[in-house]
């Protein structure tokens, strides 16, 4: 099993390949074209990419095509059922019971006065991962490719919670990392023993409603902005829903990456379009393998 450091190295190796596949997805680039674009041998690229994603570059780009995404959108009954039943689906993160708590109006007004926030930076499957957490739950999770962006993430955290006491504590955040990104051997044990991940949300009433709706999108599924708004009973508020999605401060755990345009286009992502594609491809790897082995 790869360590998180090795996983991050693999992410760096194929990040350029993912960006290329996202940009050229409609052209269905060959392995030769991809290898030439990223400066790797075909053999090394195929092996590294397949180890990281679980499928070949060809299968990955097939899954990301607009037509595939549009078909997934048409088959979004799973999401509709999850919304109507109040369930979040069978995804691993939801099996670990992701629970949300919002700050009180009084806490919102004081901008975190008296709140202690521990933060840390860690390598992950999707690049460097910046995590901030309180006794009541994770309040920030961000991805980036360069360690130099650490200070920008920290400044953003200070801007969100100007009166809070910020403490660097990588030991505490490392424990959260193992809950979010467990290896295969630890995943079953963690699901059976973990008390669950908690999130502390700070936003308007409407933003909280949107973020909670995002949590109900099952893993490996995608919905459009309109479908999300419809499911919330806010059909005429698509732009407001999109704005709230853009203000999400907790990447991956609140899965804003699962919302795409009705055309099937992935659209923008706060932490990079390539990373959005990588996360969707990773979540859908079992679906891709099944489709291409049938």
Question: Could you give the topology of this structure?
Answer:
Blueprint lengths: L3 H20 L7 H8 L3 H12 L3 H8 L1 H9 L2 H9 L6 H4 L3 E4 L2 H6 L5 E9 L2 E8 L2 E8 L5 H11 L4 E4 L1 H11 L3 H10 L4 E4 L3 H10 L8 E2 H7 L6 H9 L12 E2 L12 H11 L1 H9 L1
Parallel strand pairs: 1-6, 2-5, 7-8
Antiparallel strand pairs: 2-3, 3-4
Helix pairs in contact: 1-2, 1-3, 1-15, 13-14
Describe this protein's structure.
The chain has 294 residues and is of the alpha/beta class. Helix content is 52%, strand content 14%. The strands form 3 sheets. A 4-stranded mixed sheet has the order 4-3-2-5, sandwiched between helices. A hairpin with a 2-residue loop joins strand 3 (127-134) and strand 4 (137-144). Helix 1 (4-23) packs across helix 2, helix 1 (4-23) crosses helix 15 and helix 13 (225-231) crosses helix 14. The longest helix has 20 residues, at 4-23. It is globular, with a radius of gyration of 19 Å.
Offer a quick outline of the entry.
The protein is an alpha/beta fold and 294 residues long. It has 16 helices and 8 strands. It has a 4-stranded mixed β-sheet, sandwiched between helices. The protein has a two-stranded parallel ribbon with strand order 1-6.
From the structure above, extract its key features.
4-stranded mixed β-sheet, alpha/beta, disordered C terminus, two-stranded parallel sheet, 294 residues, single chain
């Amino acid at each position: 099993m790869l360590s998180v450091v090795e996983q991050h190295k693999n992410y760096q190796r194929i990040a350029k390949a993912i960006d290329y596949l996202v940009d050229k997805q409609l052209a269905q680039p060959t392995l030769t074209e991809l290898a030439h674009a990223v400066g790797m041998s075909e053999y090394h690229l195929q092996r590294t990419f397949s180890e990281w994603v679980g499928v070949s570059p060809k299968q990955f780009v097939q899954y990301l095509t607009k037509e595939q995404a549009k078909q997934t959108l048409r088959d979004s009954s799973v999401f509709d059922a999850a919304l109507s039943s109040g369930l979040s689906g069978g995804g691993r993160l939801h099996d670990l019971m992701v629970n949300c708590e919002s700050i009180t109006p009084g806490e919102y007004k004081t901008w975190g006065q008296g709140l202690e926030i521990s933060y840390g930076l860690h390598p992950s499957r999707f690049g460097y991962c910046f995590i901030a957490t309180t006794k009541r739950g994770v309040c920030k999770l961000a991805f980036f490719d360069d360690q130099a962006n650490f200070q920008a993430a920290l400044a953003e955290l200070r801007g969100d919670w100007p009166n809070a006491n910020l403490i660097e504590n990588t030991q505490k955040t490392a424990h959260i990392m193992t809950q979010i990104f467990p290896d295969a051997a630890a995943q079953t044990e963690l699901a059976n023993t973990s008390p669950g991940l908690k999130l502390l949300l700070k936003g308007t009433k409407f933003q909280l409603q949107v973020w909670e709706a995002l949590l109900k999108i099952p893993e490996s599924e995608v919905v459009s902005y309109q479908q999300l708004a419809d499911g919330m009973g806010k059909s005429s508020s698509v732009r407001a829903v999109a704005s709230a999605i853009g203000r999400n401060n907790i990447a991956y755990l609140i899965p804003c990456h699962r919302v795409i345009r009705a055309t099937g286009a992935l659209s923008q992502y706060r932490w990079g379009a390539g990373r959005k594609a990588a996360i969707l491809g990773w979540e859908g790897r079992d679906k891709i393998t099944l489709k291409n082995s049938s």
